[in-house]
Amino acid sequence: MAGDVTTIARPYAEAIFERADETGKLDLWSDMLELLATVVVDPTMAEIVTNPLFDHADLTSLMLEIGAGRLTDEGDNLVKLLVQNGRLTLLPEIARLFDELKAEKDRLLKVHVVSAYALKPAQEKQLAEVLKKKLGREVSITSEKDPDLIGGVHIRAGDTVIDGSVRGRLQQLANELGI
């Protein structure tokens, strides 16, 4: 089902990205989409957005009122279009896809690192430099701690996964031994 959402959201994200890029407003659109996505996932708003009995005109007015002063005229038009087409729930996915397109244009790769112990900022910086050389792109690192790894790190950079954890190596050994 998640693939269906992505398939439906992608044309919106691409059209928004193209317009934002041609007008030089990528950061502004990123902020607007983040705001709108945050609004529609709020539990109270989610009930309203998904309620088929809630009037489209009222929903449009509510969304525009929430975004007042933070949305451009084009942002307002996006809200109207999404409400009219019953696609408001796609906003989190549209925002995610837009950010991916923006990161690709900026040649920025978001890397998620899971390690057995919390990484220090100096370690994150050193890892970012090594990955930048290896991948040929700017790198933005987020990290988290998972003691179940036992030791080492698990790195996810786009579609690339590097599992240098002790748990991963033990699992690999078990697979090779047929255990």
Give the count of structural domains: 2
Q: Count of helices? A: 8
**Helical residue percent band:** 55-70%
Biggest sheet: strand arrangement: 2-1-3-4
Assign the CATH superfamily of the largest domain: N-terminal domain of the delta subunit of the F1F0-ATP synthase
What is the overall silhouette?
elongated
CATH topology of the largest domain: Peroxidase, domain 1
Residue windows where pLDDT falls under 50 for at least 5 positions: none
Q: Please, could you describe this protein's structure?
A:
- This protein has 179 residues and is of the alpha+beta class.
- The relative contact order is 0.11.
- The protein has helices at residues 2-23, 26-41, 43-50, 56-66, 73-84, 91-105, 121-135, 166-177, and strands at 108-115, 138-145, 153-157, 160-163.
- A hairpin with a 2-residue loop joins strand 3 (153-157) and strand 4 (160-163).
- The longest helix has 22 residues, at 2-23.
- Helix 1 (2-23) crosses helix 6 and helix 2 (26-41) runs antiparallel to helix 6.
- 62% of the residues lie in helices and 14% in strands.
- It folds into 2 domains: 2-103, Peroxidase, domain 1 (Orthogonal Bundle); 107-177, Glutaredoxin (3-Layer(aba) Sandwich).
- It is elongated, with a radius of gyration of 21 Å.
- The protein contains 8 helices and 4 strands, in the order H-H-H-H-H-H-E-H-E-E-E-H.
- It has a 4-stranded mixed sheet.
